[in-house]
Amino acid sequence: MDNGGGASFTTSSSSSSDIQTISAAVSPKPNPELKKLLTFKVYKRRWFVLLVLCLLNCSNATIWLTFAPVADQSAHYLKVTLEEINWLSLVYMVVAIPLSFGTTWMLDTLGLRITLIVGSWLNMFGAMLRFFGTLPPDRYGVDYNIVMAGQTFGALAQPLIIFTPTKLAALWFPDHQRATANMIASMSNPLGILLANIISPLIVKTPEQIPALMMSYAVPACLICFLATVGILSGAPPTPPSASAESSGSEPFVQGIKLLLKNKPYLVLLVCFGSGIAVFTCFSTLLEQILCVQGYNNDFAGLCGALFIVFGIIGAGAVGLYVDKTKKFIEALKINISLCAVACIAFSVVSLMREQKAAVAAVCSLFGFFGFSIYPVAMELSVECSYPVGEATSAGLIFISGQIQSVLYIIVLQALTKRLADSPLSTCGDAVLGWKVSNMVMAGLCSVFACGLVIFFHTRYRRLEAEEDATYGTKQRKSSATAASVDRGLSVNS
């Protein structure tokens, strides 16, 4: 058929081919939006960037809890009290809270590459300082203060690392892999905690082996710093993997904060999921002290902590893959946080029972399985309900909320303990504290905020909607406009 203008149309069995042929006839210049759609692709190097982040996250977590499993030997070697050894871990919380706002600005403004490289250098410098701080003092004259300085540098690196998974997933991975990438990067942190609890007691049998322990953590930190500095050449791929990646962090930092504080679904997530993070921190911190009252030794408490993390990683992996395929983020979050609350209630009961190792271990495993699976889903939802605010800003504020509530919860739960006059099975040493009321309060807090999230959290998937509109809405509008033009042309010819 001839339309009078010299252009001819060919018939094709494929509808998409028809549209492309008609488009070429009606408009000799390619549509710029359609051309942009064709550039959405992924790059193999995204897996290398993810690997570097995972290694860095894992290394920073091992530096964080290096001394906790060998506190007695560390205190003896450094000639300090156990309270001062505990501060080597607590410094992470103290430093993270005030620096988190600056970190979110840095990640959303300066980009992923600079943030990861700075974080890797701080992490390495901290690990090396700790090593030099534990060398024989009669030769080098260095001590606990140098070790604390090293821990502080590690604490400075933590926000730069722990806020990054959501940003990396958004910039480098397509929508059907984002939750999985977020899960892998996020779960490398508890994996590092698990490794610290295994490696530290394995190496340190006597106080004199502390320098060897510092070296075992410093060498990986140096290698990871080299990989980050030399291997990560850009903060984002040459072309975006999705429509939302193009506008990542498009809102200015201060404006993004204002938008988040007016976003009701995000505020519900901020308070309720932040409380969930706090409960998990309390559980990890106080587990040994809670169990020792009923006669469970440190080895069993360590086993429960390991099961908590291992099953948590398994649960996070399963749920991450599921939500990537189905996009049922809200359903997965609400179901898992409800089951997590049930597991927390169960722990408050079985932890009061004696000689119930199987029950305690099973409950700790379930608590980890359902609890850890929430984290990557909630981080993705924080972006979905707040888009187009920067990923680091939305995820970072939730982390800050969790840290602040963690400090408050630990103070409250410790204040609610009661010194026991008689506890014949206790393995706690001289000070025996009853945690019955504290356990009930922890379970109550977990239940209240789980109910709040289930009842009050409702949101649209704004990022997915934007991507769908960019991918399909543009095509549909183009097709409709093309069809209308062709109809007009055919009418004129008739």
Strands, helices and their partners?
Elements: H1 15-26, H2 32-37, H3 45-64, H4 71-78, H5 82-109, H6 112-133, H7 137-140, H8 144-162, H9 164-172, H10 178-203, H11 210-231, H12 243-246, H13 253-261, H14 264-292, H15 298-326, H16 329-350, H17 357-372, H18 374-384, H19 391-415, E1 418-419, E2 433-434, H20 436-456, H21 462-493
Helix pairs in contact: 1-21, 3-6, 3-8, 3-9, 3-10, 3-11, 4-5, 5-8, 5-19, 6-8, 6-11, 9-10, 10-15, 10-18, 14-15, 14-19, 14-20, 15-17, 15-18, 16-17, 16-18, 16-20, 18-19, 19-20
Quick one: overall form?
globular
Helix content estimate: over 70%
Structure summary, number of beta strands: 2
Q: How would you classify the helix and strand content by structural class? A: mainly alpha
Q: Name the strands of the widest sheet in spatial order.
A: 1-2
First-residue to last-residue Cα separation: 11 Å
Taking pLDDT < 50 over at least 5 consecutive residues as the criterion, the unreliable ranges are 1-38, 475-494
Order of helices and strands: HHHHHHHHHHHHHHHHHHHEEHH
The largest sheet, given as strand count, sense and whether it forms a barrel, is: 2 strands, antiparallel
Number of helical elements: 21
Strand fraction: under 5%
From the alpha-carbon coordinates, what is the Rg to the nearest angstrom?
27 Å
Mean pLDDT across the residues is 81
Describe this structure in words.
- The protein is an all-alpha fold and 494 residues long.
- It has 21 helices and two strands.
- Helix 6 (112-133) packs antiparallel against helix 11 (210-231).
- It is globular, with a radius of gyration of 27 Å.
- Mean pLDDT is 81; it is low at 1-38 and 475-494.
